[in-house]
Write a structure and sequence with these properties.
The chain is of the alpha/beta class and 377 residues long. The protein is 33% helix and 11% strand. The chain is globular, with a radius of gyration of 20 Å.
C-alpha cells in the first residue's frame, strides 16, 4: 500500500510555539520562520506551497488497499493510473521541471507507481530540486537499490513504505520484501512510514514491536504512522473499525515519547481522533496540488482521489497541518483562522492571474506503454 503523502509535515516544527515533550528529537527536520513565511506568501499569491506528482504509473507491486490504483482514484469512469500515459527519459525530466517552474512549490512529493522505476530520470531531477532549495520527499517501496548518489542531497527525504512486520509485509508487498529493503537502504537515512490497517491491530503489542525493530535500525532517521483511510462506503479487510482507531491512537499516545525516532505530536493524535470533516476543511488538501503520471490529470479532492471518507481520515500530512491549524496563538486566535483568511485572498489573486495569463497549449500525449517490470537487484 502506498503511504499517505506527508507533504510539508515540517510545518509542524516551524516557528510556532507548540509545546510538546517529544519535539526536541524532531527539530533536525524542522522548517524555520523564513520557510514558513515563504509558504504564507505563496498562499497569498494564489499558489499552493505543496506539489505532489505521481512520476510514473508503473509499479512491480500489487499491494492490497493501494489507493493510487483504485478504480475511483482518478475520478472513475474507467480511468485508472495503470491506463494513464506517462513519460520516460529526457522528456520526463523536462516536463517535470516545467511543472516546477509553473507551480513554484516549496515542497514536492514524488510518488507513483514506484518512483525507483524512473531512477535514471530522478538522478537528474533530484539534484536540480536540491539546487533550487526545494524540500523534496520521495516515497518508495525500496524494491530496488536507492542510488548512493542521492546521499547528502540537500532537503531530500526518502520515505520507505513498510506494511508491518516481516511476515505480513512480505506477503502484502512482494517483491519489496524486508530482505530487499534492509539491503537497499544501507548508507541512507530513511523515514519509515507505516499505514496501520485492520490486520495490524489484531494482535496486542504489534505496533510496538514494529516500532522497536525500526527504532533500532541504524539507517532509520524517522518513523511515521498513518491510519488507513477508506473511501466512502468501502468494505474491505484493510478498514479500521471505530474501536480499532481508538486503540491505535491510545497506543501511539503511550509510545510516542518512548521512541525517539517516532515523529508524532500529541496534537496530531488529537486530529486522528477527530479528523477534518471534509477536504474543504483540510489544510493539507487546500495547500497541495496533486497530479498523476501524465502530468496533466489533477487528483481531487486530495491525494486519495475519489470520495475519501474524511470521518476516518488517517493521513499524517492532514493530521500534521490540522494540528497547526487548531493551535491557538496568544489571545486565543486559532492559526487556522489566519490560514483560511489568507486562502480566501490567495484564491482571488489566483483567479485574476489565470484570467489574465494565456495558458500554455497542452502537450501531445503519447500512447500508454506496457508496464516494464523492475529487475530484481
Amino acid at each position: 500500500m502506498r503511504p499517505q503523502n506527508s507533504a510539508h509535515l515540517a510545518f509542524l516544527f516551524a516557528s510556532i510555539d507548540i509545546h510538546d515533550d517529544n519535539r526536541d528529537h524532531m527539530s533536525a527536520n524542522s522548517v524555520g520562520a523564513r520557510e514558513l513565511a515563504q509558504a504564507w506568501g505563496r498562499i497569498l499569491s494564489g499558489y499552493h506551497p505543496n506539489l505532489s506528482i505521481e512520476i510514473t504509473r508503473e509499479c512491480p507491486l500489487r499491494c492490497p488497499g493501494c489507493y493510487a490504483y483504485g478504480d475511483e482514484h482518478l475520478g472513475g469512469g474507467g480511468l485508472t493510473l495503470r491506463g494513464l500515459a506517462d513519460y520516460k527519459g529526457d522528456e520526463l525530466v523536462s516536463r517535470f521541471m516545467a511543472m516546477i517552474d509553473q507551480h513554484r512549490p516549496l515542497h514536492v512529493s514524488i510518488v507513483g507507481g514506484e518512483p525507483l522505476v524512473r531512477y535514471k530520470e530522478l538522478g537528474k531531477i533530484l539534484p536540480e530540486l536540491a539546487e533550487r532549495n526545494i524540500h523534496t520527499q520521495l516515497v518508495t517501496s525500496a524494491v530496488r537499490p536507492i542510488p548512493s548518489e542521492w546521499i547528502g542531497l540537500r532537503r531530500l527525504q526518502v520515505v520507505v513504505s513498510i506494511d508491518g512486520l516481516q511476515p505480513e509485509h512480505d506477503v502484502r508487498r512482494t517483491p519489496a520484501t524486508y530482505d530487499r529493503i534492509l539491503k537497499h537502504i544501507v548508507g541512507h537515512q530513511i523515514t519509515v512510514h507505516c499505514t496501520v490497517t485492520r490486520q495490524q491491530v489484531r494482535r496486542d503489542g504489534y505496533l510496538e514491536e514494529f516500532l522497536t525493530f525500526w527504532q533500532e535500525n541504524p539507517h532509520t532517521r524517522l518513523m511515521w504512522v498513518s491510519l488507513y483511510t477508506p473511501q466512502v462506503g468501502e468494505i474491505s479487510t484493510e478498514r479500521l473499525t471505530k474501536e480499532d482507531r481508538v486503540r491505535v491512537v491510545a497506543d501511539l499516545r503511550r509510545m510516542r515519547t518512548r521512541f525517539s525516532k517516532l515523529q508524532m505530536l500529541d496534537g496530531m493524535l488529537n486530529v486522528y481522533a477527530s479528523p477534518p470533516k471534509s477536504p474543504s476543511e483540510c489544510i493539507f488538501a487546500q495547500t497541495t496540488e496533486c497530479y498523476s503520471s501524465d502530468l496533466q490529470k489533477r487528483i481531487t479532492p486530495c491525494q486519495f482521489g475519489g470520495n475519501p471518507d474524511c470521518s476516518q481520515c488517517g493521513c499524517i500530512a492532514s493530521a500534521g497541518l490540522e494540528a497547526i491549524g487548531r493551535h491557538r496563538l496568544k489571545g486565543g486566535l486559532p492559526v487556522g483562522k489566519i490560514f483560511y483568511a489568507s486562502l480566501y485572498v490567495g484564491n482571488a489573486v489566483g483567479r485574476f492571474r489565470r484570467a489574465t495569463i494565456q495558458p500554455p497549449r497542452p502537450p501531445i500525449q503519447p500512447a500508454p506503454q506496457p508496464d516494464e517490470p523492475v529487475a530484481p537487484a
